[in-house]
Every structure is written in C-alpha cells, then in structure tokens.
Design brief:
3 domains; 30 strands; Immunoglobulin-like; disulfide bond; repeat
Length: about 300
C-alpha cells in the first residue's frame, strides 16, 4: 500500500515530496531511478511492527525541482511485486501586486499544467472569493483575481487553491500565498481628545493596518520620540507591534499632543491625540498645593505654613 494513494502524484515545484510504502513483508524497499533514495538526495525512514510482520518505509525530499522526473518504485523481492509511483512536477506562476488606491488591481496564479487536469479557486482569511464577492472579478479560468476600485483595506495575503486530478476520482489540492501590498491605513475611528487624571495611567491605541505590516513609532509634543521606560510601555495591537502606548503615574509633563506614525515601504499614516491631565489635590510637606486645569490653563494655588 502506498500513501498518499495518488497515481500519478502531483508535486508543486519547490515544495516537499513525501510518500510511504507499507506491506506485510520484511524486505520492503524504495528505488529512485533504480538506486537507493539516498543517492538522489531523499531522506528515508523505516518502521516495523513489534512482531516484524508489517514494514513501512517513508521517503521525503524538499524543494523538488522542475527538471526532476523521478522513476519511483516500491519493491518487495520476496513478494515479487513492484508498485510504480508516477510523479508529475508542476510549476505555478505567481504575480503579486501593489495597491494604488481607487484603481483596479489584479494578481495571478497560473498552474503550469493543462486546463483539463487543473482548477483554480481563491480565498482570503479562509473565506472563498468569487464573482459574487462584491468588487471581486475572476478571469481567465479563475487564474486572475481582479479587485475593482481597490482600497488599502484590500491589502493582505490571498490564497490560491490549485486542484489537480491525480486519478479518475482523486484530486490533489495545493495552496500558494499571493500578496497584495498596500500602504498603512487607520481602520478604526477613535476620539482624538483624551482626558485623564493625575497619577493615573494613559492608554492610547494606534488603529493601523497595512501589508507589509507597518512599523509604528510615537512622538510627544512635536518630534520628541516616546521611548520605553519604567513608566512607558509599547505593546502589540491587532498584530501590529508597538501600536498600543501605556504611560503610568501621569504627571503634568505628560499632557499635550501625541502622534502615532505608521509606515511601510508603500506609505505613511499619522494619528494625533490631544491629551489633557486633570489634577486633584496634592499634599506637600509644610504647605498645600492645589492644581486646577481649566480651558487648557494650569493654575497653582499655594499656602505657605
């Protein structure tokens, strides 16, 4: 018995070929072009049941090349039987693209095999795409995916699913990532005005996405970089590193304008926050100080004892 039970067995160029042969014999062997699999760069594993009745031999080779058309045989001399495994290696032409906002954009996935034995479908985040999927159009036997009036939110990784016939009633499916790159964008509307209390904590979130994932940095009151410290931390939000800013034990020096800037190789986007710090009463040795914030003006009231 050969697993997987495909004959011919399709292999996508550059991917791994793996097959197992199992039988109730002790002298089971694989032959690649008449020689041991190791001669052709294959790895080989042999397992037997505890009683030694059934033997399983597995072979594997990574990054199968287009120029390789191996003659593969699973053989048992004692049984006088050969199982010939046909291997067809095919290539897939992948064309990625960058989004130009408002314009139509297309990507391609073309298996290098005859149309009679292959079909192509598309998905994104596990959801299938079709001509009924809003602004999506599939052309040329589904090998070309077009998105009309593209937006930055269309950027990301799309999955091309290639199904090839491995027999009259047996199909093999291969997946390939196809990328649609786009500049960073703000995916949530958040208030730009934040009011917090003295000595409390400030939490700001930069709601950005993009592909490739953007790099995020924070600025305070102009071009002063916000750096991590014992009070300041930056963490991941929606899979974007550094997109969440936390500042503990707020002081009046922490008020003002905060900007998060997100950029990748295709563009840059900035979100601005106006942060006000409202003070309560502060007690100091020898005198009392009251901090009042009104209309953006800080007033100190002091009594000397």
């Amino acid at each position: 018995m050969v697993d997987p039970p495909y004959n011919p067995f399709w292999v996508l160029e550059g991917t791994t070929f793996r097959a197992s042969c199992s039988a109730e014999v002790r002298d089971l062997e694989w032959f690649i072009d008449g020689s041991s699999p190791k001669v052709s760069g294959y790895e080989e594993w042999r397992n037997s049941t505890t009683d030694g009745v059934r033997t399983t031999v597995t072979i594997s080779k990574s990054k199968m090349g287009w120029d390789v058309s191996p003659n593969i045989i699973c053989r048992s001399p004692s049984a006088g039987k050969d199982v010939v495994v046909g291997v067809n290696i095919f290539a897939a032409y992948i064309r990625n693209a960058n989004i130009s906002e408002g314009n139509d954009v297309s990507v391609e996935c073309r298996p290098d095999s005859s149309p009679e034995v292959s079909t192509v479908s598309w998905s994104r985040d596990g959801a299938p795409l079709s001509n009924d999927s809003g602004r999506v159009i599939l052309l040329e036997n589904n090998t070309k995916l077009v998105i009309l009036r593209s937006t930055p939110a269309d950027a990301g990784v799309y999955t091309c699913n290639m199904t090839l016939q491995a027999g009259p009633k047996i199909n093999q499916t291969f997946t390939q990532p196809v990328t649609l790159a786009g500049k960073p964008y703000l995916f949530e509307k958040m208030s730009s005005h934040v009011q917090v209390y003295l000595n409390d904590s400030l939490y700001l979130t930069c709601p950005v996405k993009g592909y490739p994932s953007p790099e995020v940095y924070w600025l305070h009151n102009g071009d002063t970089p916000v750096s991590p410290s014992t009070r300041v931390t930056m963490s991941t939000y929606e899979d974007v590193a550094g997109a969440r800013l936390s500042v503990r034990n707020l002081t009046t020096a922490d008020m003002g304008l905060y900007r998060c800037a997100a950029e990748n190789g295709l563009g840059r986007v900035v979100k601005t926050f106006h942060v006000g710090v409202t003070g309560g009463a502060l007690t100091c040795t020898g005198h009392v100080i009251s901090l009042v914030l009104a209309a953006g003006v800080v007033t100190w009231v002091m009594r000397v004892e």
